[in-house]
Amino acid sequence: MPAVQVQARVLRRRGADELRRAAGRRVDPLGVIERLGSREVYRNNWMRVREDEVRFSGGATGIYGVVEKPDFALVVPVDGGQLWLVEQYRYPVGDRFWEFPQGSWEDAALQQPPEELARAELAEETGLHAERMTHMGHLYEAYGFSNQGFDVFVAEGLSQRDRRPTPSEQDMVVGSFERPEVESMVADGRIKDAPTVAALALLLLSGR
User: Fold this and answer.
1) Phi and psi dihedrals of 59, rounded to 5?
2) What is the pLDDT of residues 153-181, one digit of tens each?
């Protein structure tokens, strides 16, 4: 075997061994950020905030704040040419906006399949039941500072039942809109929810 090939094989094996050792230290495989330590800053029933001590690829050290939240489900209810939305007050930004039904389990320990969560949120917020739920994909909401992701489902074959809003959703408004109107609502700012915009993009890309 040529010496060049032997050397290349040795280098590949050495690189793999180094990556395996680094995995225990929480190292980015591309060598960008290494976690040196971590401490919990805050915790409640819905989130955990931690502050990590990190080393960047250039050798500089610093801190990185991370918000840990459980994944949620977002539902795009499609009824012919109509899309169902909900409008509610969002306390952190102090305003009301339209968005697709979405949410996570009150008890994160339930760990039910994402489709079950999607069906529960659809019924709770809109009173709608879907004959068919199609998984469109999994996205991250804001991975610059949070590990939270969300599963996007399209709900079809809809029938109306009783709504089951939670105490924080008593002011929620439910409405159906033609698809071009929903696109206009994104353009004019009546929809500012990033997961809703991303889900709409997945719907349009799917050609449904």
Assistant:
1) 100, -15
2) 999 999 998 887 777 777 899 999 999 99
Report pLDDT for 18.
Answer: 44
**3-state secondary structure at position 145:** coil
3-state helix, strand, coil in the chain (%, to 5): 30, 40, 25
Nearest CA to 178 out of 81, 84, 86, 91 is that of: 81
- The whole-angstrom separation of Cα 194 and Cα 146 is 14
| DSSP H/E element including 18 | helix 3-23
Is domain 72-206 annotated with CATH 3.90.79.10? yes
Taking the model in full, what pTM does it have? 0.82
pLDDT digits (tens, 9 = 90+) for 63-119: 999 999 999 999 999 999 999 999 999 999 999 999 999 999 877 666 789 999 999
Which backbone phi and psi does 137 adopt, to 5 degrees? 150, 175
Residue boundaries of the structural domains of the chain? 26-68, 72-206
Q: Which residues of 116-148 are buried (b: 16+ CB within 10 A; e: fewer)?
A: ebbbbbbbbbbbbebeebeebeebebeeeebeb
